[in-house]
Amino acid sequence: MNLLNCLILAFLLFGIGVWGLMRRRHLIGMLISIELMLNAANINFISFAYFTAHDATAGALFSIFVIAVTACEMAIALAIIVTMYRRHKSLDVDQLRDLHD
Amino acid sequence: MFNIPNFILPDVLLLIFPFIVIGIRLFVTTRSQLPWRLANIGFIAIFLLLNLIPLAGGSGKLFICNWKVDDFGVFMREVLMVSALLGMWLSKDYFEHGGDKKPPMHQIAEFIGAIAFATFGGFTVVSACDLLTFFLGLEIATIPMYALAAWNKRDQYGSEAATKYILMGSVATAFELFGFSYLYGFSGSLHFDEIQAAVASGSSPLLWIAVLFLFCGIGFKLTLFPFYTWAPDVYEGAPTPVTAVLSVTSKATAIAFLVVLVYGPLSPIQDKIAPLIALLAGVTLFVGNLGALKQSRLRRFMAYSSIAQAGYIMVALLGPATTAKTAIIYYLFVYAVSNYLAFFVFGIIGHHREETFQSLRGLSKQNPSLAIALAISMFSLAGIPPLAGFFGKFHLFFSGASTGHYTLVAFAVLNNVIALFYYLQLIKAAWVDEPDGHLNPLRLTKRQREVIILLSIAVILLGFVPFLSNNIFAGFMN
Prior knowledge:
Number of domains of chain A: 1
CATH class of chain A: Mainly Alpha
Radius of gyration of chain B: 21 Å
Oligomer: heterodimer
Distance between the termini of chain A: 51 Å
Order of helices and strands of chain B: HHEEHHHHHHHHHHHHHHHH
């Protein structure tokens, strides 16, 4: 296991996240894709901290903060999605068509 | 033990303040005005305290090695506080009766708390000295905005706007974070000084990937060209005061983010990323102006207008640090004041009518003072000479031109002609067009009238003040 392998893994995860975000039409699926992208960044931080950085603690700490921040963001996202669901009774993004040019 | 230096006192107060406002609400009745009064006193006190901080010049003062208070930071804090204060005044009426055919909102204390948290996020962004603080600041500034956009639970457009906003915002966060991780990998440290040293000593593909991801991420938040599509929908769907706060606080925070990044850790390669900034600026202001041409609803119109304004501000980022920072701060003051003046007028119209161009017709006969205020704010946003907007734009373009980007500046000036056209359309609706059909009469409350007079005077004065004293804005940062 070396740095390059970890970076490729992270990049692939990020790519899967972006792909999922564009392909998925379900709000929860899109949230999971975003979560994948954020975790790809976490893997980057930890692998850089482990292999190269001269300030290794900072990188590892950063990923812990990211996890906490993501939790807050997802809590708000789920709350908003619940209000959406109460109104439309479905979680399909294609119904988000009331606001347009 | 607790030895708090007085230059971070406003930051500490602003952090405690929302907890106090929300906490007080638990002990009073729903109809009590106490949280509202307390919020007013608190915001004004923090703003006055900020004005008392003496300008330090140079690199600013440090607190625990990663919290820096420099002149740029202090002025940005003032812009953010002005925005929070005006946003709060604008929102008050929406808790009594709704606007734009929407039901009234509830929980004013929590609403003000959320605005205060978002403002504190902006404070954190401008004072950060390492990537972690920087990232947390940006998130503290954004997360309350998601909640604010969805504040009106009984309004279907609000929840749709908030869903779009949070999806786009989270993607932006992911891109930024990915960029940060490469920047950390490239330099091996989170501290800005060490990143700057690493960037100065040589570049690698890793650095360029990082820059690309960072610009993608901030492009979403600043509504730059390929990433602006969420903005009109969110601006239209969110409650009107939230739209105003979004267009000023969130934009100011994103601009501050770019300024800190471009003139901090990335300053050794500023001339190499200049083409990227120039391209983004040019395309953004062109697209924003084109989009605004065909709008008929007021808030959607303001969304495209603010996209174009983001493009104009980006032009300044091409210049040297002092000129660019001065120009951006002056323009943000002007932009905040003019934008809030427009939103106050739209808000009053929205309380009684729909928020469209149709409702503006015949305004000059029904309510001349309101029509004058609208004209002042539109002329200032368009950049007509005696008003503040002209000098703001002049400084932005001067900053861009001082490093020789004449083509972009010429393009931006030409675009201003398109901008003038659509701002004039709005003024024409208010001053020339006759109303067709019945329009509800407009009533102003005492607060609305006072704020509109205050903001109109501010827009006019901000145009003259730089000439009365040579060094108010010219030489405060070296």
